[in-house]
C-alpha cells in the first residue's frame, strides 16, 4: 500500500499491508469505549483491517492491553514513534474531544489516514484544520458515525426516502443517562458537556433524516447544582429550524434515567425508535401509517466493525468515505451555535452549508455483537 509522507520523508510502500489487503491501525486513547467496542471490533473487520499498535497516556493500561492484543504500545509523547512504524497506515482517534484536532493533524502530517471519534473537534476552525491537513497530505479523514451503518437507523432513512411518512415535518428526541463521575464528559478542558457528548447524536440524526441543514437554532442549558456538574451543563433542551417548515427538538441529560429514543412525524405517518443511539442491545421500532401499526426490532450488532471496514476500503480503493470530515464539521458548527444560543438566550442563525452526501441504506453492514472483554483501569460512564 502506498502511503505519502510529508516533508522530507519519501513515499513508502506498505508491502505487507498491500499483500494482505489489510490496513494497519493504531488506536489512540484506551478509555472505556475504546476497550469495550473499538478493540474487539477488529475481529469482525479482519478481512481488511488489523490492529498494529496502541497509544495511551497510562503506562499500566497500555502494557496490559499491549500484552493482551500482542501489539506494541506507546505513550502520548511517543506518538511520532508510533506513526513511524511501517505497519501503521491509519489511526483511530478515541481521545478526549479537546485532543482530536492536535492528534489528527499530527497523524496526517506523518502520512497516516485518520478515523476520528465524534465530535470531530470542539470548534469549526479545528475541524477545518483537520480537513486541510488530511487533504494536503493526501490521506483520508472519516468521522466515526457508527449509526450511518446501522440497520434500524438506515431503515428510517429508507422510510423517509420512499415517502412512507408522507412529507416529514417533525423530529423529537430524548437521550439521557446518569453520568458516573469523575469523567471527562463533565470536564470543560477536555471538551466535555452533554451537547458535545450525546447531543451530537440527535443533531446528526435530525440532519440525515430531514436530509437538510438547519437554518436557525435555539438552546437552553441547565446547571442544576449537582456537584457532578461544576464545569459543564447537566442537561440541554434544543430546537432547530430547517427549511420547508421542518422542526427538530431534543432533550439531553447526564442526570436522568437512561433513554435513547426519537420520533419522526410526517404528513401521513410516524416512526418511533427506542434504544436508537445505543451501541449495545436491540433497537425497537414502531411505524404508524394509514391507521395501521407495525412493530419490529433490529438485533444487537457490532457497530464499530462497519466503520473500520468502510474506512479501510476507502483507503485501499482511494475514495472518500461517508461520513467524511465535512460531515463532522456540519455537526460541530451546529453545537457551537447551540452553546452560543444558551449563553445569549437568543436564537442563532446559521450560514447555508451545502451537503450532498448523506447516509444511504446500502451502507448497512451486519456483524454479530462483540463480547465485552475484561476492561483495564476504566469504568462505564453510566450507573
From TrEMBL:
Identify the residues that the record assigns to the Gfo/Idh/MocA-like oxidoreductase N-terminal domain, covering every copy.
24-144
Q: Which stretches make up the GFO/IDH/MocA-like oxidoreductase domain?
A: 155-271
Pfam families from the xrefs? GFO_IDH_MocA, GFO_IDH_MocA_C3
Spell out the InterPro entries in the cross-references: Gfo/Idh/MocA-like_OxRdtase_N, Gfo/Idh/MocA_domain, GFO_IDH_MocA-like_dom, Glc-Fru_OxRdtase_bac, NAD(P)-bd_dom_sf
Q: Which GO terms describe its molecular function?
A: nucleotide binding; oxidoreductase activity
SUPFAM superfamilies given in the database record: Glyceraldehyde-3-phosphate dehydrogenase-like, C-terminal domain, NAD(P)-binding Rossmann-fold domains
Keywords on record: Oxidoreductase
Residue span of region Disordered:
1-20, 349-383
Could you tell me where the Basic residues compositional bias lies? 1-16
- PANTHER family from the xrefs? OXIDOREDUCTASES, TRANS-1,2-DIHYDROBENZENE-1,2-DIOL DEHYDROGENASE
What family does this chain come from, according to its entry?
Belongs to the Gfo/Idh/MocA family.
Q: State the name under which the record lists this protein.
A: Glucose-fructose oxidoreductase
Amino acid at each position: 500500500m502506498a502511503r505519502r509522507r510529508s516533508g522530507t520523508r519519501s513515499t513508502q510502500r506498505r508491502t505487507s499491508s498491500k499483500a494482505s489487503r489489510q490496513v494497519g491501525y493504531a488506536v489512540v486513547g484506551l478509555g472505556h469505549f475504546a476497550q469495550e467496542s473499538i478493540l474487539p471490533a477488529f475481529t469482525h473487520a479482519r478481512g481488511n483491517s488489523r490492529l498494529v499498535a496502541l497509544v495511551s497516556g497510562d503506562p499500566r493500561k497500555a502494557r496490559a492491553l499491549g500484552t493482551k492484543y500482542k501489539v506494541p504500545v506507546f505513550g502520548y509523547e511517543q506518538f511520532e514513534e508510533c506513526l513511524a512504524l511501517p505497519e501503521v497506515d491509519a489511526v483511530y482517534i478515541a481521545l478526549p474531544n479537546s485532543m482530536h484536532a492536535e492528534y489528527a493533524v499530527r497523524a496526517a502530517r506523518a502520512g497516516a489516514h485518520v478515523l476520528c471519534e465524534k465530535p470531530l473537534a470542539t470548534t469549526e476552525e479545528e475541524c477545518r484544520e483537520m480537513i486541510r491537513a488530511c487533504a494536503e497530505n493526501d490521506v483520508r479523514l472519516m468521522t466515526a458515525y457508527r449509526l450511518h451503518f446501522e440497520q434500524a437507523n438506515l431503515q428510517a432513512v429508507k422510510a423517509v426516502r420512499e415517502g412512507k411518512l408522507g412529507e416529514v415535518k417533525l423530529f423529537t428526541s430524548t437521550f439521557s443517562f446518569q453520568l458516573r463521575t469523575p469523567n471527562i464528559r463533565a470536564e470543560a478542558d477536555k471538551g466535555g458537556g452533554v451537547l458535545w457528548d450525546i447531543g451530537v447524536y440527535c443533531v446528526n440524526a435530525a440532519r440525515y433524516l430531514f436530509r437538510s441543514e438547519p437554518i436557525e437554532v435555539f438552546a437552553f442549558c441547565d446547571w442544576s447544582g449537582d456537584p457532578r456538574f461544576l464545569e459543564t451543563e447537566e442537561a440541554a433542551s434544543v430546537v432547530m429550524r430547517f427549511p420547508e417548515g421542518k422542526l427538530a427538538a431534543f432533550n439531553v441529560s447526564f442526570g436522568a434515567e437512561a433513554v435513547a429514543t426519537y420520533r419522526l412525524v410526517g404528513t401521513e405517518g410516524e416512526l418511533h425508535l427506542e434504544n436508537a443511539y445505543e451501541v449495545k442491545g436491540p433497537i425497537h421500532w414502531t411505524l404508524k401509517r394509514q391507521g395501521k401499526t407495525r412493530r419490529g426490532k433490529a438485533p444487537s450488532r457490532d457497530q464499530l466493525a462497519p466503520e473500520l471496514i468502510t474506512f479501510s476500503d476507502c483507503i485501499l480503493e482511494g475514495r472518500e468515505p461517508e461520513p467524511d470530515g465535512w460531515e463532522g464539521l456540519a455537526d460541530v458548527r451546529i453545537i457551537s451555535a447551540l452553546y452560543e444560543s444558551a449563553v445569549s438566550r437568543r436564537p442563532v442563525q446559521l450560514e447555508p452549508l451545502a451537503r450532498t452526501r448523506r447516509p444511504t441504506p446500502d451502507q448497512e453492514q451486519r456483524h454479530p455483537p462483540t463480547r465485552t472483554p475484561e476492561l483495564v483501569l476504566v469504568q462505564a460512564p453510566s450507573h
